[in-house]
Write a structure and sequence with these properties.
Blueprint (H helix, E strand, L loop, with lengths): L14 H14 L5 E2 L11 H12 L12 H15 L8 E4 L2 H12 L5 E6 L4 H8 L3 E6 L10 H7 L4 E7 L11 H12 L5 E5 L15 H4 L7 E6 L12 E4 L2 H12 L7 H12 L5 H19 L15 E2 L9 E2 L5 E2 L2 H12 L1 E2 L1 E2 L9 E4 L4 H16 L3
Parallel strand pairs: 1-12, 3-4, 3-5, 5-6, 6-7
Antiparallel strand pairs: 2-8, 7-8, 9-14, 10-11, 13-14
Helix pairs in contact: 2-10, 3-10, 4-5, 4-9, 6-7, 11-13
EC number: 2.6.1.-
Cofactor: pyridoxal 5'-phosphate
Catalytic activity: L-aspartate + 2-oxoglutarate = oxaloacetate + L-glutamate
């Protein structure tokens, strides 16, 4: 009898974390490595937010808090949803967790029974399927490639729904593609969901503030009020506020679901870090003027990366609407051999050879459910991005 739980056989470690770890190991060995794997802004947390945390420490706000968030933060979250999304929530409808990942996990653990299905558009964030599996559910993937702008259609959603479907996980702008759904496109999906009242929506809005050009962000419960009572809208301070390490995510939805999620959290981590919660209050209620220049900087980086990758042989890189990722197709590179003698049969082969031969770390597309491709995070300096893309161009030019 194995000592370890058989549940672990259903999941795998995070590939994005594995890539970042491997890159760090190579740097420690003296290799010149450019890491494009981590989804983490390279900006520092704004000073006003850091000062709020320091004040909280000095005021002794370092004790246990309510399991799913202090009242002040819940009120700030309600104000944010009202101000930015036109959604009215009360504090009892809000849950705060240790990052968006915990909030998503709590929701799935609180609702899934064996055999329940969760519709997940692909490409998808690597953790969605494994969290569903850990919770006893079954992921149902709906593929949308670059020809569809990485966005599923109402017809595809209709075909994926069965009597056992419990959730649709909706992520816009998307990790890994950066694809964003317009309000009209969300409305089309919502019309399908309105015909299937047993299906709930788990909307991951983590990249809400990172949208480019004239794209306007929208979220399902905002577009279709009829979905309000069966939507959990998830967000956090990690990306837009450069607070990844502070670990604060939040969600709003129906009270019975929020209470169930609180029960899960009470028996796992208990409350999120008290100091981080006070910092998040300042993030949501304090000055927001840094968001626009940060967004403009990300847009310049996007344009740089898209332009350079589209000059690489065998690579096609769509221009995304948001987030800080691109997801280039490498169909033209498959079946070739690198200068170093590596045979490229899969996108994992491509990413491995690219790291070994050029020192550029990317995440292979199979990790996100759609191949052949790879994900680049452009949340780093333009100097680093230019050098990394030049190395990718040289690598691709050397494939035979």
């Amino acid at each position: 009898m194995s000592f370890l739980s058989s549940t672990l056989d259903r999941v795998k470690p995070s590939p994005t974390i594995a890539v970042t770890t491997r890159a760090q190991e190579l740097v420690a060995l003296g290799r010149d490595v450019i890491g494009l794997g981590a989804g983490e802004p390279d900006f520092d947390t704004p000073e006003n937010i850091k000062e709020a945390a320091i004040r909280a420490i000095r005021a002794g706000k370092t004790k246990y808090t309510a399991v799913d968030g202090i009242p002040e933060l819940k009120r700030a979250i309600c104000q944010k949803f009202d101000r930015e999304n036109g959604l009215a929530y009360q504090p009892a409808q809000v849950s705060v967790g240790t990052g968006g990942k915990q909030v998503l996990y709590n929701a799935l653990m609180a609702t899934l029974n064996p055999g329940d299905e969760v519709v997940i558009p692909a490409p998808y964030w690597v953790s969605y399927p494994d969290m569903v599996l850990l919770a006893g559910g079954q992921p149902v993937f709906v593929a949308a490639g670059p020809e569809a702008g990485f966005k599923i259609t109402p017809e595809q959603l209709e075909q994926a729904i069965t009597p056992r479907t419990k959730w649709l996980i909706f992520n816009s702008p998307s990790n890994p593609t950066g694809a964003g759904y317009t309000a009209a496109e969300i409305k089309g999906l919502a019309e399908v969901l309105m015909r299937h009242p047993h299906v709930w929506v788990l909307s991951d809005d983590m990249y809400e503030h990172l949208v480019f050009d004239d794209f306007e962000f929208a979220t399902p419960a905002q577009v279709e009020p009829g979905l309000y009572e069966r939507t959990l809208t998830v967000n956090g301070v990690s990306k837009a506020y450069a607070m990844t390490g502070w670990r604060i995510g939040y969600a709003a939805g129906p009270v019975p679901l929020i209470r169930a999620m609180g029960k899960i959290q009470s028996q796992s981590t208990s409350n999120p870090c008290s100091v981080s919660q006070w910092a998040a209050v300042e993030a949501l209620t304090g000055p927001q003027d840094f968001l626009a220049p940060n967004r403009a900087l990300f847009q310049r980086r996007r344009d740089l990366v898209v332009g350079m990758l589209n000059e690489a042989e065998g690579v096609h890189c769509p221009k995304p609407e948001g987030a800080f990722y691109v997801y280039p197709d490498i169909s033209g590179c498959i079946g070739k051999v690198s200068k170093g003698g590596a045979r490229i049969e899969t996108d994992e082969d491509f990413a491995t050879a690219l790291l070994d031969e050029t020192g550029v770390a990317v995440v292979f597309g199979a990790a996100f459910g759609l191949s052949p491709a790879f994900r680049v995070s452009y949340a780093t300096s333009e100097t680093q991005l230019s050098e990394a893309c030049a190395r990718i161009q040289d690598f691709c030019a050397g494939l035979r």
